[in-house]
C-alpha cells in the first residue's frame, strides 16, 4: 500500500461514493423507474458529502456535472442486480483503499456487501461475498474479510432444492481457494479437510500451494502440493465422460495442473512422472479434444529456465503416444530451445514432428484435426526461427510440412479445418516477408515465387512490395505489383468460394496504395454476397490505415446495413485511436434510421471507449455525458466507475 495518501478530486470521490448509494440498490431491486418519492430518499449525509465536496474543491465544475451527480445520487443510475453491482462496488472500494483513502472505501465495501447479501442465487451470492472478502484482505481489512469468508462458508454448507450436494462441494472449494489467495492459509487447510471428495481436495490443495508459492513460501507449498498429488492419484469413480461434441477427465485435469506447479517448485522429476501418467481425450466424433498430457508438459515448460531441464523434459515428452499431443508438446519444447540458442536440437525435434504418421482412422474430422495441429506445430517452429533470422533453418522446417491436404469426405468442410492457402503456403509467405524486412529481398522473392498456391504467392509478393515501399524502393515495388499473377476465373460464375482468393488479394492491395485496382477487382466479382464482403473489407482496411474519408465514401457502395455497421464501427474506433473523439461520437450517436448506425452491443462498447478516452484527456463532463447514453446498464455502470477511478488518479 502506498505510504502517501492519494488526494482524490472531489468529483471522483462523489462518484465513487454515489455508486454505492442505497438509492441505486432500491432501483435495481424493483427494476422499475424511480418514482418522485424514491428519487428523494437519498440520505442527508450523502447529500452533505456531495455538497461539501463540490464547495471544497470543485467550484468551477459545470452545472452538468452537478446535475449528473445529483441524478446518480437520487438512484437514477441503474446497475443490473446484483452480482455485477457488488463486483463494481468492491473494485471501486479496493481502488480507493489502495490509493490511501481507507476511510472513504469503507462505505463502498459495506454497500457491496449489502448488495451481495440480497442475491437470490445461492452460488452467485457465495461467489460475490468471497470476492469482496478477498478484496478486503488485500487492503489489510483482515477481520472483516474473515467474517465474510465465514458467511460464505456457512452458506456453502447449507443445502436446498436449488443448491444440492453437487453444487455445495465446488462452491466451498472455490471459497477455500480465495481464502488461500487472501493469505488465510490455515483456515483454508482446515476447510479442505471437510470437502467431500478426493477430487475437490486435490483441486483446493493445488491452488493453496500455488498461492503459497506466489508468496515465496516454497517449503510449505511443496508439502501441500505433494498432498494434493496424493489425493489426485486416489481419485476414483465417475470422473471421465465422452459425448458427440465434448469429453473430459477431471482426474487428469487436476493432475495436469499439479504437474505444472511441481515444476514451479523445482520438482522436475516428479512433475515429469505426473505428466507421463495422464493422457488426453477426444469427443465421440473427433471434433474436439482435451489435451491434458500436452498441457501438463506446457505447464512444466513454462517454469524452466535452464537448457538441461528443457532437454530432460524433451526426453520424457518423447513417450507421448497421441500424435496430436506429440505435435503440441514437442513444438513448444522446440520453440523454447530456439529461445535458448539450441537450434540444432530444435531442428531435430521438428524432424520428428514431420515424421509423425498421418491419422487415417476414426473419422475424417479427426484425421484433419491431427493434420492441422501437426502443420501448425511446424509453423510455430519455423516462425520462431524466422524471428531469430535463422532463415535457412526455418526453410528446413518448412520442407517437412504438407503442401496440400488429403482428399477426404465428411460432414465438416475440408476448408474449415485446412484452409487454402495451406499452412505451409502461409508460412513460406511469412518467411519471405521477414526476409524482406531483414534486407534479403532477392531471397524473399525466391521464397515467394516458390509458393504453389496463387493466392499465397500473391499475398507474399504484396507483403514484400510493402517493405520495398517503406525502404524507398518504389520502382521495384511497382514492378512486382504490376507482374502480380491473379487467380484464374472460376468456371461457375457465381462461385463464392472460387472467387475468395481474388477478394483476399484485392483487400491486400489496399495496404500498398492500390485502392483503385482493388475496387476494380471487387466490382468484377459476380457473387453479390462476396462482392459486398470484399468492398467492406477494403473499406475497413482503409480505415485501419487512417484513410477515413475514402473509407466513409465507400459506405455508399455497401447495400447491407450489417456491412455498413462493421465499417462505421471500425471508422469510429480508428477515430478514437487518432484522438478525433467528436467525430467518433457523431458516428456512435447516429440514430437507428441513419446509414451509419451501429448495432446495439457494438454501439455500447464504442460509447464506453469514447467516454474512457474523454476521461483520459481530462474532459470529465463530456465523458459523463457519453457514458450516460450507453443503453447497456452494466456497461454504463462500469464505465462511470472507471471514469471516477481515472479522475481519482
UniProtKB/TrEMBL annotation:
**SUPFAM superfamilies hit by this protein:** TPR-like
Superkingdom, natural source: Bacteria
Keyword Methyltransferase annotated: no
**UniProt keyword annotations, A-Z:** Signal
| InterPro entries in alphabetical order | TPR-like_helical_dom_sf
Leader sequence residues: 1-25
Keyword Signal listed: yes
Q: What is this protein called?
A: Tetratricopeptide repeat protein
Amino acid at each position: 500500500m502506498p505510504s502517501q495518501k492519494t488526494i482524490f478530486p472531489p468529483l471522483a470521490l462523489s462518484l465513487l461514493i454515489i455508486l454505492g448509494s442505497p438509492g441505486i440498490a432500491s432501483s435495481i431491486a424493483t427494476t422499475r423507474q424511480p418514482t418522485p418519492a424514491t428519487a428523494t430518499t437519498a440520505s442527508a449525509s450523502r447529500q452533505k458529502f456531495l455538497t461539501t465536496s463540490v464547495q471544497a474543491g470543485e467550484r468551477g465544475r459545470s452545472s452538468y456535472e452537478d446535475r449528473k451527480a445529483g441524478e446518480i445520487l437520487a438512484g437514477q443510475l441503474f446497475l443490473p442486480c446484483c452480482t455485477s453491482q457488488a463486483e463494481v462496488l468492491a473494485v471501486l472500494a479496493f481502488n480507493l483503499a489502495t490509493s490511501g483513502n481507507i476511510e472513504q472505501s469503507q462505505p463502498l465495501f459495506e454497500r457491496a456487501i449489502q448488495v451481495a447479501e440480497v442475491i437470490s442465487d445461492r452460488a452467485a451470492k457465495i461467489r460475490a461475498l468471497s470476492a469482496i472478502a478477498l478484496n478486503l484482505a488485500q487492503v489489510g481489512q483482515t477481520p472483516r474479510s474473515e467474517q465474510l469468508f465465514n458467511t460464505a462458508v456457512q452458506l456453502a454448507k447449507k443445502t436446498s432444492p436449488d443448491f444440492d450436494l453437487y453444487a455445495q462441494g465446488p462452491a466451498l472449494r472455490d471459497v477455500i481457494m480465495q481464502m488461500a489467495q487472501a493469505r488465510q492459509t490455515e483456515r483454508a487447510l482446515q476447510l479442505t479437510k471437510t470437502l467431500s471428495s478426493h477430487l475437490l481436495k486435490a483441486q483446493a490443495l493445488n491452488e493453496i500451494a500455488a498461492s503459497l508459492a506466489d508468496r515465496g513460501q516454497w517449503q510449505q507449498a511443496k508439502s501441500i502440493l505433494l498432498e494434493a498429488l496424493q489425493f489426485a492419484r486416489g481419485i476414483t469413480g465417475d470422473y471421465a465422460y465422452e459425448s458427440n461434441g465434448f469429453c473430459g477427465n477431471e482426474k487428469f485435469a487436476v493432475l495436469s495442473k499439479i504437474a505444472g506447479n511441481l515444476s514451479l517448485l523445482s520438482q522436475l522429476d516428479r512433475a515429469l512422472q505426473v505428466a507421463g501418467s495422464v493422457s488426453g481425450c477426444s469427443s465421440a466424433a473427433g471434433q474436439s479434444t482435451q489435451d491434458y498430457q500436452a498441457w501438463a508438459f506446457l505447464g512444466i515448460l513454462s517454469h524452466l529456465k535452464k537448457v538441461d531441464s528443457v532437454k530432460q523434459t524433451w526426453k520424457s515428452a518423447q513417450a507421448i503416444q497421441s500424435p496430436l499431443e506429440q505435435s503440441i508438446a514437442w513444438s513448444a519444447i522446440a520453440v523454447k530451445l530456439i529461445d535458448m540458442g539450441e537450434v540444432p536440437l530444435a531442428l531435430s525435434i521438428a524432424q520428428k514432428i514431420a515424421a509423425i504418421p498421418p491419422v487415417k482412422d476414426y473419422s475424417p474430422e479427426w484425421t484433419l484435426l491431427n493434420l492441422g495441429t501437426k502443420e501448425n506445430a511446424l509453423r510455430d517452429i519455423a516462425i520462431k526461427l524466422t524471428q531469430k533470422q535463422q532463415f535457412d533453418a526455418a526453410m528446413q522446417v518448412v520442407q517437412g510440412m504438407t503442401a496440400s491436404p488429403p482428399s477426404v469426405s465428411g460432414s465438416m468442410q475440408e476448408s474449415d479445418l485446412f484452409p487454402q492457402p495451406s499452412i505451409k503456403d502461409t508460412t513460406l509467405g511469412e518467411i519471405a516477408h521477414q526476409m524482406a524486412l531483414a534486407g534479403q529481398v532477392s531471397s524473399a522473392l525466391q521464397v515467394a515465387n516458390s509458393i504453389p498456391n496463387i493466392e499465397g504467392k500473391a499475398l507474399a509478393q504484396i507483403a514484400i512490395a510493402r517493405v520495398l515501399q517503406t525502404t524507398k524502393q518504389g520502382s521495384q515495388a511497382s514492378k512486382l505489383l504490376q507482374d502480380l499473377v491473379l487467380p484464374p476465373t472460376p468456371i461457375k460464375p457465381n462461385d463464392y468460394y472460387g472467387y475468395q482468393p481474388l477478394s483476399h488479394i484485392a483487400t491486400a492491395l489496399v495496404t500498398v496504395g492500390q485502392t483503385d485496382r482493388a475496387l476494380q477487382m471487387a466490382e468484377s466479382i459476380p457473387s453479390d454476397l462476396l462482392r459486398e464482403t470484399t468492398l467492406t473489407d477494403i473499406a475497413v482496411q482503409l480505415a485501419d490505415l487512417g484513410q477515413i474519408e475514402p473509407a466513409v465514401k465507400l459506405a455508399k457502395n455497401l447495400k447491407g446495413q450489417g456491412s455498413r455497421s462493421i465499417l462505421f464501427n471500425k471508422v469510429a474506433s480508428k477515430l478514437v485511436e487518432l484522438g478525433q473523439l467528436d467525430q467518433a461520437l457523431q458516428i456512435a450517436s447516429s440514430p437507428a434510421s441513419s446509414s451509419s448506425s451501429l448495432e446495439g452491443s457494438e454501439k455500447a462498447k464504442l460509447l464506453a471507449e469514447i467516454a474512457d478516452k474523454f476521461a483520459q484527456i481530462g474532459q470529465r463532463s463530456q465523458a459523463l455525458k457519453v457514458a450516460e447514453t450507453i443503453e447497456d446498464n452494466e456497461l454504463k455502470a462500469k464505465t462511470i466507475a472507471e471514469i471516477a477511478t481515472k479522475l481519482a488518479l
